[in-house]
Amino acid sequence: MTTTGIHTPTARRSAATAQRRPRRERQGAAWVFLSPWVLGATVLTLLPMAVSLYLSFTDYDLFNPPHWVGLRNYVQMFTEDPRYWRSVLTTLTYVVVAVPLQLALALVVALALKGMKRGKGFYRSAFYAPSLLGASMSVALVWRAVFNDGGTVDHLLGTGGWADKPGWALLAVALLTVWQFGAPMVIFLAGLQQIPAELYEAASVDGAGKWRQFVSVTVPMLSPVLFFNLVLQTIQAFQVFTPAFAISAGKGGPADSTLVYTLYLYDRGFVASHMGYASAMAWVLLLAIGAVTAVLFRTSRTWVFYASEGER
């Protein structure tokens, strides 16, 4: 009994250690597999963000050491730079025009594809293709040629080239984004296929027509997917760069009508070599996108319907 009493605590400690060792080994293996992502996130995201935050408080021209100036870049941005506010207004106009048009077109095409009996896979791939190609500079340059004087739009409508008209150039940029509706379309299509057919049957029995079914069944049941697409496309729209750069040849013209925020940031940082000022602009953009996203999440409580919760 004495011998057993002496060795029992030791045996228990050994058993507990043996149980903890596999757990530590599993955690170690997990960190080994996660290490490429952690290293990449640290070196390629967190560290550059920290450097950018520091540079936003400096005067830095890419060639000389940064000189600390405190809040001067931010003060100049908000009080002394009219082009900055024009870029803000242009970006907001672009977001308000491009995002609703893109989501509306994506939803219409998704509804059409849902009712198709044949060729759904082909058309789904065909409509998704612009989302893969649209972000490239080559497509943006072709788009500029289409909307230039003597281009396709000029020949069809006889209105002249939109790319050279201050009142139409931003619309040409927005239409390029609208044309890339494939990604939200696929998400809408997946959401539509999850709506129970019984809901439409019950609405039909109650005398609801197609429009009433769309308003009373499709929209509420699809609202979480609509909200997801709205947040995603809004964030992307605030960061638009390639179409505006290509259509305006990097100048934001004509008359700053396509001077979106990121294009002006590029101009300040890499053309004028005011990298400290550009870094400050980048951080303001990050905060603005965060604020807009927070507002969308806050307002979603009033119109997004989750079937599992049974409430709006």
TrEMBL record:
Residues 88-296 form the ABC transmembrane type-1 domain. It comes from Streptomyces broussonetiae. The keyword Transport applies. GO terms for biological process: transmembrane transport. This is ABC transporter permease subunit. Gene3D superfamilies: MetI-like. Residues 1-23 are annotated as: Disordered. It comes from the Bacteria. It is found in: Cell membrane. Belongs to the binding-protein-dependent transport system permease family. Keywords: Cell membrane, Membrane, Transmembrane, Transmembrane helix, Transport. InterPro entries: ABC_transporter_permease, MetI-like, MetI-like_sf. It is a multi-pass membrane protein. GO terms for cellular component: plasma membrane. The chain crosses the membrane at residues 29-55, 92-113, 125-147, 167-192, 213-232, 275-297. Pfam families: BPD_transp_1.
